[in-house]
Structures are given as structure tokens and as C-alpha cells.
Design brief:
By secondary structure, the protein is of the alpha/beta class. It has one domain: Rossmann fold. It has 9 helices and 7 strands, in the order E-H-E-H-E-H-E-H-E-H-H-E-H-H-H-E. A 7-stranded parallel beta sheet has the order 3-2-1-4-5-6-7, sandwiched between helices. Helix 1 crosses helix 9 and helix 4 runs parallel beside helix 6. It is globular and about 55 Å long. It starts with 6 loop residues before the first strand and ends in a 9-residue tail after the last strand.
Length: about 260
């Protein structure tokens, strides 16, 4: 198993997909900087992982906040080579609600700001830092892995804000990879299906079982560790670039 003797940043790195990825990277020797708004969870995870792991309270939508986090990562005794974007929020509301009211604009804007603009903010600043490092094998300086969702393709009723934000991440993947080809930075995106994150964990067991039964195979909810394993595989596979990979057990979501 390859060791990652490099620096890495993980946005949304204190819980769910991000926490699993932070753990996996640290286990492989990376100096991980956890970016998250949840100070208690981030501080606790950094203490748990120890070593070169640090936490920086970060608002991914704020330029100065992300700049400070990237500065922390690049200040370590190894080059920044890995950025994994897991920060995101959900929102459920119809374009026109049952009571005839229109979808709230602030809610739509916030969802797009956190999920799409936040992803781009971390991507651009991390890539700029990677571009200043010495190239490695094949001229590669780093890799960015983003998180979309199968809702980008199969958005359900009430998912218009979430699906739009995740569709934007799918749409930026290829042009970002092409933009960054000149500096040797790869960009890929994972589009997870139903993953057993804290959000789904709040549902009753009966509801969780019903969700899992609709997945063709394997007939279970995805695990955060499944995501982390795929993210690290992308990091290792130097010929993967500009690609969006569905991780969903062959699930195609119905309208509701």
C-alpha cells in the first residue's frame, strides 16, 4: 500500500465523508489539514489522528478563511499535493410548494454557495498552491477530488437547489482538469449515492432499511469508508483526470 508523504487538505473533514477521508489519508502518512466549521468535531478528530494532522476552522465560501487554511497546509514540512472537497449542505423544497409559495431564494443561494462556490473556492486556492511546488512523476503536482451526488443526474422532487449545486460540480470537473493540465494538477469528482452519513443516521431504522432495499447491489447503504477508499484510489491513479465517478451500487433515483 502506497504511503502518502505529502500534505493534504480535506474540506468538511470533521464528519461523514470528510472524516473518513481524513482518517484514511492520515493512516497512509499524509499531513492532513482538516477544514470545517465545526470546531469541536474538528479539534477532536485532529487530536485523535495526531501526528501531522491539524484543524483549521474554515468557511469554504469565504476567500480569506480558505486562504488561511491553505497557508496552514503549505506551511508543513512537505508539499501540498492532495485536496479533497467534502463540505456541503442539503436543502429540500419544491420550486412551487404545496401552499403555492415559491421556493425561497435565500435557501437556493446558500445551497449553491456552500456546495458549488465553496468547492470552487477550495479547488482554485489549493491548485494555485500546488502549482508552486516541484513536479513529481509525469510532471504531476497534485490532485483535487470533489464531491457531487447522483442527484446531479437523478434529482428528485424537492431537490432542485441541491441537484443544481451538485450538477455545477459535475460541470466544472472537465474544464477545471483542462485548465490545470498546464500546471500538472488533476481534477476528478465522485458522485455518491445513498451513503450512511450523520444525515441518514438520523432516520429511523425502518426508513434506512427501505432506502437500502432500493439499491440494486450491494443492497446496503454506502459507507463513508467506501468514499474514502475511492478518493484515495483516484489520488493513486495518475491517469484518472477530468472524470466524474458514480459510487451508488447502480442506483438510479426515482422522482420521489
Amino acid at each position: 500500500m502506497k504511503s502518502f508523504e505529502v500534505a493534504a487538505v480535506v474540506s468538511g473533514g470533521a464528519s461523514g465523508l470528510g472524516a473518513a477521508t481524513s482518517r484514511a489519508l492520515a493512516a497512509r502518512g499524509a499531513a492532513v489539514t482538516i477544514l470545517d466549521l465545526n470546531e469541536d468535531a474538528g479539534t477532536a478528530l485532529a487530536a485523535e489522528l495526531g501526528g501531522h494532522t491539524t484543524f483549521v476552522r474554515t468557511d469554504v465560501t469565504d476567500e480569506a478563511s480558505v486562504e488561511a487554511a491553505i497557508a496552514e497546509a503549505t506551511g508543513k514540512d512537505r508539499p501540498l499535493r492532495i485536496a479533497i472537497n467534502c463540505a456541503g449542505i442539503g436543502w429540500a423544497e419544491r420550486t412551487v410548494n404545496r401552499d403555492g409559495s415559491a421556493h425561497g431564494l435565500p435557501q437556493f443561494t446558500k445551497t449553491v454557495m456552500v456546495n458549488l462556490v465553496g468547492t470552487f473556492n477550495v479547488l482554485r486556492l489549493a491548485a494555485a498552491a500546488m502549482a508552486r511546488t516541484e513536479p513529481g512523476e509525469d510532471g504531476e503536482r497534485g490532485v483535487v477530488v470533489n464531491t457531487a451526488s447522483i442527484a446531479a443526474y437523478d434529482g428528485q422532487i424537492g431537490q432542485i437547489a441541491y441537484a443544481a449545486s451538485k450538477g455545477g460540480i459535475v460541470g466544472l470537473t472537465l474544464p477545471a482538469a483542462r485548465d490545470l493540465s498546464s500546471v500538472g494538477v488533476r481534477v476528478c469528482t465522485i458522485a455518491p449515492g445513498l451513503v450512511d452519513t450523520p444525515l441518514l443516521g438520523s432516520l429511523p431504522e425502518e426508513a434506512r432499511t427501505a432506502l437500502a432495499s432500493g439499491i440494486p447491489f450491494p443492497r446496503r447503504l454506502g459507507r463513508p469508508e467506501d468514499f474514502a477508499e475511492l478518493a484515495l484510489a483516484i489520488v493513486e491513479h495518475g491517469y484518472l483526470n477530468g472524470e466524474v465517478i458514480r459510487m451508488d451500487g447502480a442506483l438510479r433515483m426515482a422522482p420521489r
